[in-house]
């Protein structure tokens, strides 16, 4: 058993593992504050993936290329939550289908992402490509 550590808070949670031994999860960066940041752990080092401008992010999936998907708040204190793709240190907002909410839950080896997004009539399953 290997303790992956934290990024300063008192808790972290592993979520997914790929064939390269990379782990994604989420971390409470400040003890007692219930806001989380997605992380990527690799070769003994934990990297905070950041957010899309808000105070929290959570992972959804990881592929063998080291690409991470999930969801993040886009501004502090507001409920705008967008799907993201994190790759090579950059978190990219995948947008929505017109609503304020989307999340990405899995990514395959080709970089195709699945999840859900709010629309004017409800929440729909989505596939992001390219």
Explain what the structure shows:
The protein has 130 residues and is mainly β. It has one domain: Peptidase/esterase 'gauge' domain (Methylamine Dehydrogenase, Chain H), CATH 2.130.10.150. Helices cover 0% and strands 54% of the residues. Strands 1-2-3-4 form a four-stranded antiparallel sheet, with no helix packed on it. The chain has a four-stranded antiparallel sheet with strand order 5-6-7-8, with no helix packed on it. The mean pLDDT is 93.
Structural category: mainly beta
Radius of gyration: 14 Å
Percentage of residues assigned to helices: under 10%
Q: For the largest beta sheet, what order do the strands appear in spatially? A: 1-2-3-4
Q: Strand-residue fraction?
A: over 45%
Number of domains: 1
Mind telling me the CATH superfamily name? Peptidase/esterase 'gauge' domain
Average per-residue pLDDT, rounded, comes to 93
From the N-terminal CA to the C-terminal CA, the straight-line distance is 37 Å
SSE string, helix = H, strand = E?
EEEEEEEEEEE
> What kind of sheet is the major sheet?
4 strands, antiparallel
Low-pLDDT stretches are: none
Specify the CATH class. Answer: Mainly Beta
Say what the CATH topology is: Methylamine Dehydrogenase, Chain H
Strand runs, count? 11
Number of helices: 0
Could you say which overall geometry the principal axes of the C-alpha atoms support?
A: globular
Write out key terms for the chains shown.
130 residues, mainly beta, Methylamine Dehydrogenase, Chain H, 4-stranded antiparallel beta sheet, 11 strands, 0% helix, globular
